[in-house]
Structures are given as structure tokens and as C-alpha cells.
Amino acid sequence: xxxxxxxxxxxxxxxxxxxxxxxxxxxxxxxxxxxxxxxxxxxxxxxxxxxxxxxxxxxxxxxxxxxxxxxxxxxxxxxx
Length: 80
Known about the structure:
There is one protein chain. By secondary structure, this protein is an all-alpha fold. The protein contains three helices and no strands. The protein has helices at residues 14-25, 28-32, 37-79. The longest helix is centred in the last third of the chain and has 43 residues, at 37-79. 8% of the residues are buried.
């Protein structure tokens, strides 16, 4: 399973997702016999890379916010 494909977080994967959609549009039997599996694998790889990048970015932002909060608390403790 994968998240919703066409969201703002997945802009880097639009070409791969479009290829998967086009493959799915070719019909049920086309999907049934695994002709879209390579596109599905590529979508999964792309979404994973996007997620890992987003996670790393969020982690860095949280670290900066935490440092800022600790500095504020330190200042409050020193001045009270």
C-alpha cells in the first residue's frame, strides 16, 4: 500500500505516477498479468525517497526548535 499519490508532498514522483496511471488505464487484464509491476515498484521507490527526505528535514527542524526551547528555558532559569 502507498499513500495518496497526487499530493503536494509527492511532486517529485509525478512522472512515475503518471506512467503507473497510464499502465492501469490499459485495462484489468494488463494489470492482472503483472505488466504494471515495474511501474508500481518505481512509484514505491520514489515515494520512499521522498518520505526519507521529508523525515530528515522534519528531524532537523525539530532539533533546531528543541535547541531554541532549551536556550529559552536556560535563560529563564538563570534570570529567575
